[in-house]
Write a structure and sequence with these properties.
alpha/beta, 2 domains, 14 helices, binds magnesium ion
């Protein structure tokens, strides 16, 4: 069997869902997904000649071939691994289809038939779409009249030039309230989810400066009230996590994490920037609130120091970015030697999501997998095969069909495809 084509399509969901399709000279093709990034499809096209004519079933050797080919250009980490991650999943999909085995089988077999999902609830409201540079844009599936009806000026905000951060301008702080967080939490629990995550670094009426990493006492009180509202809304049996998106300095991150201890968070995500492992370790050691990070780390090497120095309570690699599914398994196994669980970050279409679910089924230390598309109305329609809907009562049943076990619904994909990108052409 030989690879004949490597092609891409970009579907505009709440992120640019970048799908990789690899064709062979047999009647088998594979699908994978890469985490959106500027220049991503050009990188995939540039890597393609290294794969044409190769046998796709030698997944790990081809993965290393791509890796070493790119290493001279300085890519020990970064966007090239977003590309390689999507390619690797497509190679595994082909291999599974060829041997009539689901991906969880190729990854070592199953620990569980269903994977627990946590719902990303954003910031009390969920209507957003972000470009590959994480700049807010108007969701293209949103009807015009619905956009006009959005509360608190969010509609005009979405139609205005971007402010450079996902939440728009600080005057929107009146939508980031304990009441809206609590309401959103109750709505999402009613859908059957037993684990939720909210953003905590939202516009705050007490912020003096959003660049210096400082949190005042008033800001920490405001954030604590958001967390308290969610905990009171859902009770003690639902896991709740909060994301800080790398914003704060060490001492204020510690004050925040300690202030949140009474609310029993599943984790506090990225309270400090990800680059300084010692800074992260100091936060983790100073609080009983579990600290999570990992969506910025690449390959097992990117997690090694953080694990060796006990800087993380939970690892959160993004499986469309960290190097692929086999590499994710290696990261999980490395974390397991430190008795650390994995809760993968995920913002992908159902293709990348199901790929990640296969890994979560196959590793012992899976905690929960992120679902970030509550607000995207066509998410389930985008694929065929597998259960419909894919997530039921907060869990996904991992498909048993060969490979990924789902296929892209190309008619739906084409409807939302970016017209300035090739569609598997
Ligand atoms: Mg995060």
């Amino acid at each position: 069997m030989q690879i004949t084509h490597v092609r891409t399509a970009v579907i505009e969901g709440n992120f640019d869902w970048t799908i990789v399709r690899i064709d062979t000279d047999r009647d088998i093709y594979g699908l994978g997904e890469s985490f959106c990034a500027p220049g991503l499809t050009a990188i995939i096209r540039d890597l393609a000649p290294l794969l044409i004519g190769e046998d796709p079933r030698h997944v790990d050797r081809l993965w290393n071939k791509l890796r070493w080919a790119a290493s001279g250009a300085g890519s020990q980490a970064g966007i090239v691994y977003n590309a390689i991650s999507g390619i690797e999943t497509a190679l595994l999909d082909i291999t599974g289809k060829y041997y009539n085995a689901p991906l969880w089988q190729l990854l070592g077999g199953k620990y569980r038939d269903r994977v627990r999902i946590y719902a990303d609830c954003h910031a009390g409201e969920a209507l957003e779409s972000l470009s590959a540079l994480m700049v807010a844009r108007r969701p293209r599936w949103l009807p015009t009249d619905e956009a006009e009806a959005l509360p608190c000026g969010l509609a005009s905000e979405l139609n205005r030039p971007a402010h450079g951060r996902a939440y728009g301008s600080p005057q929107l702080s009146d939508i980031f309230t304990p009441e809206l967080y609590a309401r959103r939490a109750r709505e999402v629990v009613a859908l059957g989810f037993t684990a939720l995550k909210f953003d905590l670094d939202v516009p705050n009426p007490y912020t003096h400066d959003s660049f210096n990493g400082v949190l005042s006492h008033a800001e920490i009180r405001y954030m604590t009230r958001l967390v308290e509202a969610v905990r009171e809304a859902v009770g003690d049996t639902i896991d709740i996590a909060f994301d800080c998106h790398w914003r704060y300095n060490v001492s204020d991150a510690i004050r925040l994490a300690c202030a949140l201890e009474p609310y029993g968070l599943a984790w506090l995500e990225d309270p400090v920037p990800p680059d300084n492992i010692e800074a992260m370790r100091r936060v983790r050691e100073a609080t009983r609130t579990p600290i999570s990070s990992g969506e910025n780390y690449y390959l097992r090497y990117g997690f090694r120091e953080a694990l060796e120095r006990h800087a993380l309570s939970i690892v959160a690699p993004d499986l469309q970015k960290c190097g692929g599914l086999l590499e994710a398994r290696r990261i999980a196994d490395l974390a397991d030697t430190y008795y650390v669980a994995m809760a993968p970050h995920n913002i992908s279409s159902p293709i990348g999501f199901v790929a990640a679910a296969h890994v979560c089924a196959a590793i012992p230390n899976a905690l929960t997998l992120e679902f970030h598309a509550l607000s995207v109305p066509f998410w389930d329609e985008l694929v065929q095969g597998g259960a419909q809907p894919l997530i039921q009562n907060g869990y996904i049943s991992v498909p048993d069909a060969p490979g990924l076990g789902i296929e892209l619904n190309e008619a739906v994909a084409r409807r939302y495809a970016r017209d300035d990108e090739p569609f598997f052409a």
